[in-house]
Write a structure and sequence with these properties.
single chain, 46 residues, mainly alpha
């Protein structure tokens, strides 16, 4: 993976976490969802 792919993946996770906070989901759920999407995204990019 390139550094660019990693930074794009990270931006995607942060955007999801911000959206989760806006919807007043608990931080634990937001972090969990972010971690899951990051893992999925990294698998997809390989």
């Amino acid at each position: 993976m390139t550094k660019r792919q990693i930074s794009l993946a990270w931006e995607h996770v942060q955007a999801q976490q911000r959206r989760a906070r806006r919807e007043r989901i608990t931080d634990v759920n937001a972090a969990y969802a972010g971690g899951n999407s990051m893992t999925t995204l990294l698998k997809d990019l390989k």
